[in-house]
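Notes on consecutive records. When two proteins share a document, each keeps its own sequence and its own token line. Never mix them. Below: protein one.
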Amino acid sequence: EAILFFNDLMVDLYSGTSDGIVEGVVRILKLNKLSISKLIGIGTDNAAVMTGVNNGVHAKLKSKHNLISLVLVRCVCYSLQLAVVTAAKNCLPDNLECLLRETHNCFVFAKTKDLEKYTNADNPMKILLLADTL
């Protein structure tokens, strides 16, 4: 038995729909002389096109290719993030996640020049005043 990671293999998809992706999966297996009947599982992100119960890639592979016991492994990182958000919903302020996300985005999408301005060791920027938000 072998484990095939599609990260290393590429085929052009004719469509980003579940039908197009299923066709791409079948094509890539054929190109590598692998039988689709031996497919036992797929790992995907949590997008509906991949995991949809009726029309997702997983559902279509199961029904169109008689893969009744095909295992779906969802993205662990995203699933964990959803679990943490749900668990923390009643514990943390609603705007905390937004604040953290926007702070991250500010630095990720900032131009290098702007980032250097904030992190300059010779003349570091200081918080002038803490705001009382209560």
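Protein two starts on the next line and is unrelated to protein one.
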Amino acid sequence: MPGETWTSSAIRSAITSSSHGIAASRWGETHPLAWWAQTRFAFCSHSGQGMMSIKPIQSFARGLSVLSVLNRYGSATALQLARESGVPRPTVYRLLQTLMDEGYVRRGTADDRFHLRLRVRGLSEGFEDEQWISAIAGPALAELTGRISWPCDVSTLDGLKMVIHETTHRIAPLSIDRNMVGREMPILGSSSGLAYIAFAPKLQRDALLELLATSTDPHDALARNTEQVKRLIATTRRRGYGLRQGGALWPHTGSIALPVRVGQRLLGCINTVWMARAVSAADGVSRCLQPLRETRDLIEQRLSDGSARGKDRRHRGNAQWE
């Protein structure tokens, strides 16, 4: 950026000024270096570059494992929790007692099963991506799946991966996959990743490609072939969507993805998935592109309406004090 030096102090300032986990979706609203600094920081943390070695706390990890299993099943006995989490049963009892003392878990009086308490929901209160994904994108994708029968996902950028936050695989008649929420997808090896990087602001796109080129993940190796990546991104931009048919990770499926924006902000992507042996790439685009566009437009409209209402409420609130 003209007139600005990329010093370590500027990068630290950028990290400080960005909100954890949502800097990418608020591009341009924080320090200009915020997204690049946070991504670089996260990447170095995972790769061990420039970071001191920190010994993990095993008891905390075991507690999270037990809590995760309980969240998956809704309720469970101590024996079930021990078996599913791999944590010894005496340790499970101690962890459950701690979670009960802290108000996150309760023990049933009639069935001797353990249940989550409402306080657990507070752990996700600061996870702002869920606000638009759950309230707006999720229902819209469910409507789309009802029309085309194929499953759909919504994903956002997390470090150097696209991560699925909401999916209709569980309700789609033609789905062959399950447990998709939380699954990571390579940027250059998925339709959502291609749609994201192709339509990201140039500064963000260049920073992503620089980081991907130094990644040790084999699924990011394509980033080191500069000319091929340029052609791939140019093709994606010309089409207006990301496209994948088969591939090393998911040879049995194909998919098409579109970026989701509010104004100039790129929030994430939505996609539709089909079975590659039954539907060619051309057929998939022919069948799914227009319904997917209509759904994307609906999501963006609802997001814009919500943003406008929020600004209007803030304006009225401020006017009371003028």
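For the record: The chain has three domains: 8-47, 58-123, 129-312.
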